[in-house]
Amino acid sequence: MRFLTTRLLLTLLIAPLTLWLVPAPAALVALAFVTPFATKFADLFAEAAAGHPDPGWDFEPDKVTISRGTPLVVVNQGGEPHTFTEVARFGGGFIPPLNGGQATAPECAGGFKDVAVARTRILQGSQLQVTGLSTGEHRFECCIHPWMRVTVDVE
Ligand SMILES: [Cu+2]
Q: CATH number for the 6-154 domain, one of 2.40.30.170, 3.75.10.10, 3.30.1370.10, 2.60.40.420?
Protein backbone atom coordinates (compact mmCIF):
# COMPACT_ATOMS: atom_id res chain seq x y z
CA MET A 1 0.00 0.00 0.00
CA ARG A 2 1.33 3.41 -0.90
CA PHE A 3 0.05 6.71 0.34
CA LEU A 4 0.71 9.81 -1.70
CA THR A 5 0.80 13.05 0.17
CA THR A 6 -1.87 15.67 -0.07
CA ARG A 7 -1.58 19.37 0.22
CA LEU A 8 -3.07 19.83 3.65
CA LEU A 9 -2.43 17.82 6.75
CA LEU A 10 -6.09 17.90 7.60
CA THR A 11 -6.81 15.61 4.69
CA LEU A 12 -4.41 13.04 6.08
CA LEU A 13 -6.83 12.36 8.88
CA ILE A 14 -9.41 11.11 6.44
CA ALA A 15 -7.42 9.40 3.73
CA PRO A 16 -5.71 6.65 5.76
CA LEU A 17 -9.05 5.46 7.08
CA THR A 18 -10.25 5.18 3.53
CA LEU A 19 -7.17 3.29 2.43
CA TRP A 20 -7.68 0.55 4.97
CA LEU A 21 -10.83 -0.44 3.14
CA VAL A 22 -8.99 -0.96 -0.10
CA PRO A 23 -7.19 -4.20 -0.86
CA ALA A 24 -3.46 -3.56 -0.88
CA PRO A 25 -1.49 -2.59 -2.80
CA ALA A 26 -3.24 0.56 -3.93
CA ALA A 27 -2.13 3.98 -5.05
CA LEU A 28 -4.10 7.00 -3.93
CA VAL A 29 -4.86 10.16 -5.82
CA ALA A 30 -6.48 12.84 -3.70
CA LEU A 31 -8.56 15.69 -4.95
CA ALA A 32 -7.24 18.58 -2.95
CA PHE A 33 -9.12 19.79 0.03
CA VAL A 34 -11.10 22.93 -0.56
CA THR A 35 -12.84 24.48 2.41
CA PRO A 36 -16.53 24.36 1.55
CA PHE A 37 -17.78 27.72 0.34
CA ALA A 38 -14.28 29.21 0.53
CA THR A 39 -14.34 29.83 -3.22
CA LYS A 40 -17.18 31.79 -4.72
CA PHE A 41 -18.34 30.58 -8.10
CA ALA A 42 -17.96 34.06 -9.56
CA ASP A 43 -14.29 34.06 -8.53
CA LEU A 44 -13.78 30.55 -9.89
CA PHE A 45 -15.12 31.56 -13.29
CA ALA A 46 -13.25 34.88 -13.35
CA GLU A 47 -9.91 33.25 -12.49
CA ALA A 48 -10.38 30.48 -15.06
CA ALA A 49 -11.31 32.99 -17.74
CA ALA A 50 -8.20 35.02 -16.91
CA GLY A 51 -6.02 31.94 -17.46
CA HIS A 52 -4.99 31.35 -13.83
CA PRO A 53 -7.54 28.99 -12.33
CA ASP A 54 -7.66 28.39 -8.61
CA PRO A 55 -4.64 26.16 -7.78
CA GLY A 56 -6.42 24.87 -4.68
CA TRP A 57 -8.62 22.76 -6.94
CA ASP A 58 -6.17 20.08 -7.88
CA PHE A 59 -5.35 16.41 -8.19
CA GLU A 60 -2.46 15.46 -5.94
CA PRO A 61 0.02 14.39 -7.01
CA ASP A 62 0.23 15.59 -10.63
CA LYS A 63 1.94 12.39 -11.71
CA VAL A 64 1.64 8.87 -10.36
CA THR A 65 3.57 5.76 -11.28
CA ILE A 66 2.00 2.40 -10.48
CA SER A 67 2.68 -1.20 -11.33
CA ARG A 68 0.25 -2.87 -13.67
CA GLY A 69 -2.61 -4.33 -11.66
CA THR A 70 -2.39 -1.78 -8.86
CA PRO A 71 -5.77 -0.22 -8.22
CA LEU A 72 -5.88 3.55 -8.24
CA VAL A 73 -8.14 5.00 -5.58
CA VAL A 74 -9.28 8.57 -6.12
CA VAL A 75 -10.68 10.30 -3.05
CA ASN A 76 -12.62 13.56 -3.20
CA GLN A 77 -11.55 15.46 -0.11
CA GLY A 78 -12.97 18.76 -1.30
CA GLY A 79 -16.34 20.39 -1.10
CA GLU A 80 -17.42 20.04 -4.72
CA PRO A 81 -18.09 17.21 -7.14
CA HIS A 82 -15.40 16.42 -9.69
CA THR A 83 -14.81 13.87 -12.41
CA PHE A 84 -11.81 11.64 -12.94
CA THR A 85 -12.08 11.10 -16.66
CA GLU A 86 -9.48 9.50 -18.87
CA VAL A 87 -8.66 11.53 -21.97
CA ALA A 88 -6.35 10.90 -24.88
CA ARG A 89 -5.18 14.53 -24.69
CA PHE A 90 -5.78 17.09 -22.01
CA GLY A 91 -8.33 19.70 -23.00
CA GLY A 92 -11.24 21.68 -21.74
CA GLY A 93 -14.23 20.36 -19.85
CA PHE A 94 -17.96 20.60 -20.53
CA ILE A 95 -18.41 24.06 -18.97
CA PRO A 96 -16.80 26.35 -21.58
CA PRO A 97 -16.36 29.41 -19.30
CA LEU A 98 -14.04 27.30 -17.13
CA ASN A 99 -11.89 26.14 -20.05
CA GLY A 100 -9.56 29.12 -20.33
CA GLY A 101 -10.05 29.09 -24.09
CA GLN A 102 -9.14 25.43 -24.56
CA ALA A 103 -11.32 23.26 -26.76
CA THR A 104 -13.37 20.67 -24.90
CA ALA A 105 -11.73 17.24 -24.75
CA PRO A 106 -13.92 14.86 -26.77
CA GLU A 107 -14.22 12.50 -23.77
CA CYS A 108 -15.81 15.31 -21.72
CA ALA A 109 -18.04 16.77 -24.40
CA GLY A 110 -21.29 15.06 -23.45
CA GLY A 111 -21.21 16.18 -19.83
CA PHE A 112 -23.25 14.17 -17.38
CA LYS A 113 -25.78 13.31 -20.10
CA ASP A 114 -23.08 10.95 -21.37
CA VAL A 115 -22.99 7.93 -19.09
CA ALA A 116 -19.28 7.50 -19.83
CA VAL A 117 -18.66 10.90 -18.19
CA ALA A 118 -21.28 10.45 -15.48
CA ARG A 119 -19.67 7.26 -14.24
CA THR A 120 -16.39 9.12 -13.64
CA ARG A 121 -18.06 11.61 -11.29
CA ILE A 122 -16.85 11.66 -7.67
CA LEU A 123 -19.09 13.40 -5.19
CA GLN A 124 -17.82 15.15 -2.07
CA GLY A 125 -16.51 12.62 0.41
CA SER A 126 -16.66 9.79 -2.11
CA GLN A 127 -14.07 7.79 -3.94
CA LEU A 128 -13.63 6.08 -7.26
CA GLN A 129 -11.47 3.05 -7.91
CA VAL A 130 -9.79 2.71 -11.29
CA THR A 131 -8.54 -0.74 -12.22
CA GLY A 132 -7.33 -2.55 -15.27
CA LEU A 133 -5.16 0.23 -16.70
CA SER A 134 -2.90 -0.99 -19.47
CA THR A 135 0.85 -0.47 -19.42
CA GLY A 136 1.82 3.01 -20.55
CA GLU A 137 0.82 6.59 -19.92
CA HIS A 138 -2.75 7.55 -19.05
CA ARG A 139 -4.14 11.06 -18.64
CA PHE A 140 -7.06 11.93 -16.39
CA GLU A 141 -8.74 15.27 -15.90
CA CYS A 142 -11.78 16.75 -14.28
CA CYS A 143 -14.38 17.47 -16.96
CA ILE A 144 -15.79 20.27 -14.79
CA HIS A 145 -12.54 22.00 -13.74
CA PRO A 146 -10.21 20.93 -16.55
CA TRP A 147 -7.05 22.33 -14.98
CA MET A 148 -7.29 19.42 -12.54
CA ARG A 149 -5.08 16.90 -14.29
CA VAL A 150 -2.95 13.89 -13.47
CA THR A 151 -0.74 11.63 -15.53
CA VAL A 152 -0.62 7.97 -14.51
CA ASP A 153 2.28 5.86 -15.70
CA VAL A 154 1.61 2.14 -15.54
CA GLU A 155 4.75 0.00 -15.55
CU1 LIG B 1 -13.37 19.27 -10.71
A: 2.60.40.420
The pLDDT tens digits for 69-117 are 999 999 998 888 999 999 999 999 999 999 999 999 999 999 999 999 9
Q: Based on the number of CB atoms within 10 Å of its own CB, is 85 exposed (0-12), middle (13-18) or buried (19 or more)?
A: buried
For 64-74, give one letter per residue: b (16+ CB within 10 A) or e. bebeeebbbbb
User: From ligand 1's centre to the CA of 42, what distance in Å?
Assistant: 16
Distance 68 CA to ligand 1 centre (A): 26
